Amino acid sequence: MKKEKRSFLQNNVVQSLLASLICIVLGLFIGFIVLLFINPSGAVDAILTIIKNFMVFPNGNIALKYLGNTLVKTAPLLMCALSVLFSYKVGLFNIGAAGQYVIGAGVAVYAALAWQLPWWLCALLAMAAGAALGAVSGLLKSYFNVNEVISGIMLNWISLYSMNMLLVKVKEDTSPYTKQIAIHGKAALLPSLGLDKLFYNNKYVTIAVPLAVLIAVLVWVVLEKTKFGYELKATGMNKNAAKYSGMAEKRNIIVTLMIGGALAALGATMFYLSGYEQWATSQSSVPGMGFNGIAAAFLGGLNPIGTIFASFFIQHITEGGAYVDKTMYSSQISDLISSLIIYLCGFVLFMKHVMSKHAAKKGGKE
């Protein structure tokens, strides 16, 4: 019995699941303590509201509609998480996913409003732009040994201000927001294929939701079941060994960041071409979706399938925080609680390391 228990705890999937659950519980607990310090009388209701999210609505149809809103935001988060995960498997930390998300949003929205292109062509152009941005980091990394984190951060801000300037041409006359795609670029709206009716006529629920899940499965297949995926992971483990084994390590690095850029840009397309939100040309900070993708990737144990559930959970918590009673807590409290949980998601790998070390030590004694 002891031997079976030891092998069970050393299983990578089990470790990832336990580590994620520990981080989630710990994050919620710390968030609850913060709520107690601010206003103890409403702390229990507040934390339960965050956990419930759309389930706070007693009407089932309304709850279903708001579940749809959570799924709409889960799709782009999942794509950003896959962008980070794919790069990490090759030993690269794609913090530039945030900028790739931005440039994808900018190109897709501009193509939709200025050129009146259909959604699929907008998506392809956005992916090409994201891939090109990823290629810049890849080239700098491969040929000039510039750390991808440094180049990624710089490109995030370059992308933000570049897209702000570009989208000024398609914004409303009296508003910093771009024109509504549902009115001025109907051909670019993502089709729903009847999915909107499943969520009480939520018009923002589109093919983006199932498409994001399918892409996650495809990423898993590529990484785990193909020669191409094996070469990429081998390059990540030891690029020098990969080079002397006949693998094109420089090409692999560039291609990896290009794929990561395309995934993040596609995530932006899924969100902005749903019509859920328009780009604000006055914004001075990079959207958090790309950075939250880092947390989702690690919370999912750096597994594409696990990342599906992790992305939904993070978005679920984030959306739930918006329903906290604002008469007891400031409007920023929901962001604070969400940030605490997202921050702790980064400790999943540390938790796995602790469990592996403990299991090995226990096995040695026995």
What's the Cα radius of gyration?
21 Å
Beta content comes to under 5%
N- to C-terminal distance: 12 Å
Which ranges are low-confidence, i.e. pLDDT below 50, for 5 or more consecutive residues? 1-5
Level-1 CATH class name: Mainly Alpha
Structure class: mainly alpha
Total number of domains? 1
Order of helices and strands: HHHHHHHHHHHHHHHHH
What number is the mean pLDDT? 89
Largest sheet: none
CATH topological fold name: ABC transporter involved in vitamin B12 uptake, BtuC
Q: Can you count the helices?
A: 17
CATH structural architecture: Orthogonal Bundle
What is the share of helical residues? over 70%
How many strand units?
0
Q: What is the 3D form?
A: globular
Describe the protein.
The structure is a single chain. This protein has 366 residues and is an all-alpha fold. The protein has one domain (2-365): Orthogonal Bundle (ABC transporter involved in vitamin B12 uptake, BtuC). It is built from 17 helices and no strands. The chain has helices spanning 2-9, 12-38, 43-52, 60-88, 97-114, 119-144, 148-167, 181-184, 195-198, 208-225, 227-237, 239-244, 249-272, 289-299, 304-320, 333-345, 348-365. Helix 3 packs across helix 15. The radius of gyration is 21 Å and the shape is globular. The relative contact order is 0.20.
